[in-house]
Amino acid sequence: MKCLYIQNHIQSILTNTKLFFYEDLEGLKQLQALHEQIVKEAKELKEEVVDASMSHHASAVKELKGVSQQYHSLKSQYTEKVSQLEMAYLIKDVSIKLLEEELAMEKLLML
Length: 111
Fold this sequence. Notes:
The protein is mainly alpha-helical. The protein contains 1 helix and no strands.
């Protein structure tokens, strides 16, 4: 009888151990699934961040190109205006010299 009791007790312990083992195994499976889901979501988030970063970079490059074109246009306009002013200055300088020569000749003629 005692042997049967011990055998039943051992059987009960084995059954409980199997239950705990299966519960732990199921918990591990759930943890593995959760881990895989987290890895997948992290990868998707990383891709979203990279896509957003690339989009922002492309926008910044486009904006920089626009500003660069605007700068070159303004620089060209400035250079043209400087050339016009230099030419006007030279023309006035020549006109002044001609007037000075004309004045000098008139003074000579008056003498």
